[in-house]
Amino acid sequence: MDMLLEFPNMVLQNREGTRYDGYITVMNEDFRLCLEYPSDIAKATLSCDWKLKCLLDGCLDVLKQRILQSKSLPSFLQEMTRIIEKKLEVTKSTKSNKEPIKCGQIISEIESLGWDRLVSVDADFTLLQFLHTDHKGREHILGMKLHPQHPVEPPQCITDLPVPFDPHWTNKSTLEDLYNQFTHSVNSYQLFWDCMEDIDKNTWVLEPDNPNFSAVYRRIAISSSASVQITVDPKQPQLLPSCRFMGADHSVSQLRQNMNSNLYHWDPEGNLLENLQSLLDVTFPTPTTSKKEEFSMECGICYSYKLETELPNEVCNDSRCGQAYHHSCLYEWLRSSGCRQSFNTVFGECPYCSKPITVKMPTT
Amino acid sequence: MQRSGRMKKELEMLSKSPPYGISCWSKDERIDLLQAQILGGEGTPYHNGIFTLEIQIPERYPFEPPKVRFVTPIYHPNIDTGGRICLDTLKMPPKGAWKPCLNISTVLTSIQLLMAEPNPEDPLMADISNEYKYNKTLYIENAKQWTKQHAVEKNISEENLVKAKSMKDTGVKRTQPMCDVTNKKARDS
User: Fold this and answer.
1) From the CA of A262, how many Å to the nearest CA of chain B?
2) Prior bond of A8 cis (ω within 30°)
3) Quick one: which of B73, B61, B2 has its CA closest to B34?
C-alpha cells in the first residue's frame, strides 16, 4: 500500500507483487523505469529509459549497493529519487555556466565575415578556425577559442605567425575586427616568408623538418661535416641573422673566419640567401646538385641519422676522420669505456680513429 | 634504444653484401639472436668445413660487444669445447678492444681471420696451443680430422651421406666437394 501512496505512477505487473513498471517524477521530470524486486534482493533488476540511464551513468555501483541494503521497495525508490535529484542539480549548474555565449550573435558575426572563410567550428561555438590566403597563395589559419564571457573577455587566438599574435580587443569588438588584424599581420610578414621559402627551396634544410610559417630558424647543410643554423628576425628578415655553426672544428673555424672578414659586405637590401653565401664564402649545396643523404651523415654508433629527435651533431675534429655521432650515443660509449672526466666534460677517444674526442655532459 | 635501429641496418647490409665466405641471418625474425656460417678458408685445416655460429645481441649493443659462440665443434687453440672464442674485439675495454665502430660483419671477419691465424700466445685450449707451437703437423692433422667429422659430414643430408659413403667405396676421393660427387654420380648413371 505504501507503494501506491508514494509512487502512484508505478504499476504492479504480476500476482506475486514483485514486478513494477511505470514512471517516477523527480523535480517535475518523469523518468520511465521497470523494476523486478523479488524476495531474494540479490536477483533484483532495474531497467530504465535513455534519459535516466545517461543521468545515472557513473553511479551504478551506488545504486546496486542501495538495492541490496534497502528494506522495502518504497524505501529504495526514495533513495533513488534522492540520487537523481542530486544528479539533476549538478547537470543544471554545469549547463548554466555555458550560458553566456550567445550562438545567435556569433553566427551573425561569422556571416558578416563570410562563411567561406570559416574552416571549422565545434558544437558549442567556442572553437572557431578561419582561413586567410595571402596574395602568394600561402594559407594561414586563425584559430579562436571564445571566452565563456564573450564578448567581454577577448578570445584566445591560435596562429602560425612567427611572433605571438596580440590583437587589440574591446567589448565592442567583433570576430571580423580580429580577422582583419590577423590579415594585416600576415601581410607584414610576407617578406620574411619569401626569404624563408627561398632558403627551403634552394638549400638542404636539416632542421626543422617540414618548417611551418612560425619557424624562424633553419639549419642549412654546408658540407658533410658542417652546417649553419640561422635565426632570422621576422620583422627585418634581410638583416644579418644570428648564425650558429655546427660540425668539425677545421671546417667550422674557416667559416667563422670568413664570416668575420665579410661582415661589412652584408647588403641589408639584398637577397638573404645570396648575402649568406657571400658572407660565408660558400655555395650551399642545392637539391638540384646533390642528395640530402650526402649531408645527413649517419651516427657512427647507432647507424641512424635521427635518434628520436636528436641529430648527429658531435663530429670528430680530426679532418681525416670527421665521423659524426649523436651526443647521447658518444656520451654513453665514452662513459662505458672508462674515460676521464673533468668538470662537465668527458674526455675519450673517437671510436673510429682513436684520436682524442670530448663531449659535454648532458645538462639534465 | 640504439640497438633496434642499428640491427635493422646491419641485417640489411649483411644480406645485401656479406663478407667473403660468411653468411649471417636473424633467427626466427629476432633482432637479439643471429646465426652465422663461416666457410673454412682454403689453405687452412678447416678448408671445406662449414662452421655454424650463434650470435647474441645484448640489450646495450652497440655499447657492448655481441656474444659469439661456435655451434660447430672446432679444433683451435683459441676456441674451447663449449664454442667460446678468445678474441679481444669480443671483450669490453680496457681488457678487450670492442668499439661501437665494429659490427657483426667485422667481428665475423676477424673470427674468420683467427681461424686462419691462431694466436697461441693467448690460448684458451693449452693442449692445442702447445701442439700448434711445437708439433704443427699433428695440430693440422687433428684439426682436419675434426673439420671432417663435425663441419663437413654434419652439413651433408642423410641421403647424400649414404651416396658419399658408396662413392668412397668405389674409390671417389673424399675431399671433393659434395655437390660434385652427386653430379658425378648423375653423369655416370
Assistant:
1) 40
2) no
3) B61
Question: In angstroms, rounded to a whole number, what is the distance separating the alpha carbons of residues A176 and A167?
Answer: 12
Interface residue B58 vs chain A (CB under 8 A): no
Taking the C-alpha atoms of residue A79 and residue A65, their distance in angstroms, rounded to an integer, is: 11
Confidence of residue B163 (pLDDT cuts 50, 70, 90): low
**CB-based contact A333 B93, cutoff 8 Å:** no
Q: How many CB atoms lie within 10 A of CB A93?
A: 9
Tell me the catalytic residues of B: 86
The closest CB to that of B9, out of A303, A329, A351, belongs to: A303
Chain B, residues 71-130, CB within 8 A of chain A, namely 92-94, 99-101
A303, A308, A332: residue with CB nearest B6: A303
Chain A contact for B183 (CB, 8 A cutoff): no
Distance CA A107, CA A354 (A): 70
Cα torsion B187, B39, B53, B30: sign: negative
- Who among B5, B63, B101 is closest to A352 (CB)? B101
- pLDDT by residue (tens digit) across B34-60? 999 999 988 899 988 899 999 999 999
Residues 33-52 of A with CB under 8 A from B: none
Sheet strand arrangement including A127-133: A118-121, A127-133, A139-145, A156-158
Q: Which of A308, A338, A351 sits opposite B99 (nearest CB)?
A: A351
Chain segment B96-113, per-residue pLDDT in tens: 899 999 999 999 999 999
For residue A344, give the amino acid letter: N
Phi and psi based region of residue A146 (left: phi greater than 0; alpha: psi -120 to 50; beta: remaining) = beta
Chain A CB within 8 Å of residue B60 CB: yes
Q: How far apart are CA A53 and CA A186, in angstroms?
A: 50
Q: What is the spatial distance between Cα B39 and Cα A287, in angstroms, rounded to a whole number?
A: 45
Stretch (H or E) spanning A206: strand A205-207
Across the interface, do B5 and A302 touch by the CB < 8 Å criterion?
yes
On whether any CB of chain B is under 8 Å from the CB of A332, the answer is: yes
pTM here is 0.58
Q: How far apart are CA A67 and CA A76, in angstroms?
A: 6
Would you tell me how many other CB atoms lie within 10 Å of the CB of residue B8?
14
Burial of A223 (0-12, 13-18, 19+ CB in 10 A): middle
Mean pLDDT across A266-287:
90
Which ipTM was obtained for this model?
0.74
Is B141 near chain A, with CB under 8 Å?
Answer: no
Q: Show residues of chain B in contact with A357, CB under 8 Å.
A: none
CA gap B46, B76 in Å, rounded: 10
Name the DSSP letter for residue A282. Answer: -
Residue B179 is inside which H or E element, if any? helix B178-188
